[in-house]
Amino acid sequence: MIEMTTKNKVRTSSGYARTILKEAFGQWSARIGFFWIAVIALLAVFSPFIANSHPYLIKTNTGISSPLLKYLEPADIILLSVFITILVLVYLRKRLMFSLLVVLVITGITSVISFSFVEPPQLVVYEKYREMEKQGKLEWVINAPIPYSAKDYLRDYGETGMEEPLSEDGRTHWFGTEQSGADVLSRMIHACRIALGIGFVATGIAMFIGIILGGLMGYFSGIVDMLGMRLVEIFEAIPTLFLLLTFVAFFGSSLYLMMVIIGVTTWPGYARYVRAEFLKLRKMEYVQSAIACGLPLRSILFKHMLPNGIAPVLVAASFGVASAILFEAILSFLGLGLVDNPSWGQMLYQAVQSASFYWWMAFFPGGAIFLTVFAYNLMGEALRDAIDPYLKKTS
Amino acid sequence: MTDVVIKVSNLKTYLEIGDMVVKAVEKVSFEINRGETYCLVGESGSGKSVTALSIMKLLPKGIANHPTGEIIFGSKQDLKPINILNVQEEDMRNIRGSRIAMIFQEPMNSLNPVYTIGEQIMEALQIHWPEISDEQARKKAIKALADVQIPDPEQRIDEYPHRLSGGQRQRVMIAMAMVCEPELLVADEPTTALDVTVQAEILKLMQNLQKRNGMSILFITHDFGVVAQIAHKLAVMKQGEMVEQGEVQQVLDNPQHEYTQKLLAALPENLKQKNRAAMLASFRESQGKNKDEKDIIKIENLKVYFPIRKGVFRHTVDHVKAVDDVSLSIRKGQIMALVGESGCGKTTLGRTLLRLIDPTEGAFFYNGHKLSSLSQKKVLPYRRDLQFIFQDPISSLNPRLNIATILTEPMSAHGIGANREERILLAQDVMQQVQLAPDYIWRYPHEFSGGQRQRIGIARSLVLNPKFIVCDEVTSALDVSVQAEILDILLTLRNERGLTLLFITHNISVVEYISDEIAVMYKGKIVEQGDTDVVISSPEHEYTRKLLSSVPRLHHRGYITRFAD
């Protein structure tokens, strides 16, 4: 009997969330979307290992060394360790809240460690190892699959700007080169980080503010709700794009600034969703009974109400990530995005800058933006269908 | 007058949901004569509504199919009887409304809110009789409204549904169904959502109309009291099968099938004769010494008003007086029943006692502590002693939490039990008291039936070991047999734990069964209170008398008709 009960406990430990996910990802569209995002995420985490001018291993007369590891930056190490943590947690099937906590702690610890101990050389000379190889100083060398870094402008080859894909002998650029002569494929792989990062961080900020404010508005209603809704209306009246343009003009373009601005201007949507849900849930009898049992406010808000009202927010979030990616692409396309760091929108911008049309600069980054936004929308669509009780055939 | 209007023979209706086949109706046969009322009775899920929808051919095509059976319909001389199951959808549309009409349970949802009631009745008319002019249709609609006793039909025909009360809407639905003078009226629980007094009026109206038009009625209900009032013949259904059918008199007085006997025995008015006397006697004996114990709850001139706000600044223009100057006291160990029609403020009063709603004026005391003026924070310690059981067993349990969490969380908030293991043992103890298997504790609410969920609701209120519980319509969403079990659990708990209950309900027979004292509430005020047996046998106030006489009872057959005439 005891064995059976424990089995039951494991089987239904996250009852609702699991059924929703199962239903959503039972659909082909959602699986395709999830697959694409997973590919982008893998590329983002492993970008230094996939596209890098520094070889994996070299053998010189002084011995074997790994320039790639030597040049790894703190951000690369943090991403890698977080990725491994998530893999382990998924494998161990831990609870969602616990996993989130562990991921946060690991991020904190590795940030501190890597920022204080990992010191890549200040001066990066990308062509150093190619030159060494040409001069025969290396006994053997193992290169990355794409032996060009995102900011490697191939100075040792002279003028390499805007070459068509696979047009040069001796160098393989699958997607061609861009204006300053760097490999487009390499830049696109490194840009995955920005695309995913801006989407997740901006949406995360927006969701955090939206859930807290919307939840308080919905639960307390009355005067809190009245003031909150006016605040929501004020923020909804701010045109995000123009605000971004203004800030970029004054403070220069910074990725973090963009994330924060997109985050603090898009939260009203989430706040509205949460408020509406909480207004409805407040009247539900199980919330009333939680109050009647004398449970503390924290438990009522976060244990009894939030899990029941979070679903529409998650759906909105998956669309929100897509729109944040588009915002970044738009800014970069207008020439107000990141200058040196690679981003998909910035490459699109280069495609139309001069009189001639560089098709590979438009096709590959444009396709990547399209597919990523499309993938998020597919997932959002599937999630929405899964949580909508009216669309279900059974029950 | 004995010609058959509809003859259903060997009807099977199977519903395919995914890979599952639900045998909703299994080999049902019956026939209804002209001018006769035929009742289908059964608990929820017994297939009575599916039978009605099969007759109307309203079941979705892809899901429902009929392996065997035929439904022969038609009694008019000039028309040949037809088998409804073979009729094309196009022809069926002509039959529906004009020859077979249907009225539904929810009067709130079955009228379209964007059209006036006149437009809706006239549309029904003109679809079936296209030759009728607008003026004639309007006249006929006014007459139909007059027939169902809507006051001032000439004016009210242009009103929108939201201006009508629930009872009036159901009258309009009946007018709409009757306007084409159908041969058969299918009524699916038409009075379940209405108050008893309104129910009595609607039942009487249907009987009168039937007498005048000579139409047949297929009446679906779960309430044996209603059956006793209105039916000529009845059939009892159980899990898709018809277990017994016959004349009302014969079935109700001398049920043959075991299931019918069980259903009839579970009715509170029958329970009463068996159990109550014994239970009360044993309880009174145990309480004998404490007979004059002081009031556990004392309410003094309590008022709960909800402001009606208007305009830009939301200033208050008026109040809805939900509870208006109520004084009441409940002695320890008593079951006080609070009865009244929907909207009379009984639920508001119950919730105010638990401080789920703030009182506007007046005071109430628990064991001498004035709860009404405490802040929410200071009420917290009292929440342990005062508990609430909710009406709807579906929405009163959080679907995301398992039973263990639902039951142990209140305990940990009030510091009962040293650790989680101990609390779970305590919770399992309480589950046994409400007759639930303790190993269900790891399940989620959706895995339980309605009656089981209501027991979980009771268990949740018991884990804190309260002294006083407000039970808000705890049995009204349940079938009779389940209701009987829940009532017995409550009575047993009262005896074992010395609980005091405020039992809010609209069901008089439940009141008679369970309560010691009764308070009748009408439009926010308490109009009568006293010992249950005294009030029931000799009601003083006019409203109490009307309420009691409206209750359909098994043993006063045809009473309503007599009373109303």
Report the uncertain regions of chain A.
Answer: 1-14
How large is the radius of gyration of chain A? 25 Å
Overall helicity of chain B: 25-40%
Q: Helix tally of chain A?
A: 16
Distance between the termini of chain A: 30 Å
Helix-strand string of chain A: HHHEEHHHHEHHHHHHHHH
User: What percent of residues of chain A adopt helix (DSSP H or I)?
Assistant: 55-70%
Q: How would a textbook summarize the main sheet of chain A?
A: 3 strands, antiparallel
Q: Work out the strand percent of chain A.
A: under 5%
Q: Would you identify the regions of chain B where 5 or more consecutive residues have pLDDT less than 50?
A: 558-565
Determine Rg of chain B (CA atoms, Å): 26 Å
The average pLDDT of chain B is: 85
User: What characteristic shape of chain B results from the CA principal axes?
Assistant: globular
Q: What's the number of extended β-strand segments of chain B? A: 21
Shape of chain A: elongated
Structural summary, described in words:
The complex is a heterodimer of chains A (395) and B (565). With 395 residues, chain A is mainly α. Chain A has 16 helices and 3 strands. Chain A has a 3-stranded antiparallel β-sheet with strand order 2-1-3, with no helix packed on it. In chain A, helix 2 packs across helix 16 (359-387), helix 8 packs antiparallel against helix 9 (222-236) and helix 9 (222-236) runs antiparallel to helix 11 (255-282). Chain A is elongated and about 80 Å long. Chain A starts with a helix and ends in an 8-residue tail after the last helix. Residues 1-14 of chain A have low confidence and may be disordered. Chain B has 21 helices and 21 strands. In chain B, the strands form 4 sheets. Chain B has a 6-stranded mixed β-sheet with strand order 7-8-9-3-10-11, sandwiched between helices. Chain B starts with a strand and ends with a helix. In chain B, a hairpin with a 2-residue loop joins strand 20 (517-522) and strand 21 (525-531). Chain B has 565 residues and is of the alpha/beta class. In chain B, helix 3 (117-128) crosses helix 4 (134-147), helix 6 (166-178) packs parallel to helix 7 (196-213) and helix 14 (403-413) packs across helix 15. Chain B is 38% helix and 25% strand. The chains are: A mainly alpha (395), B alpha/beta (565).
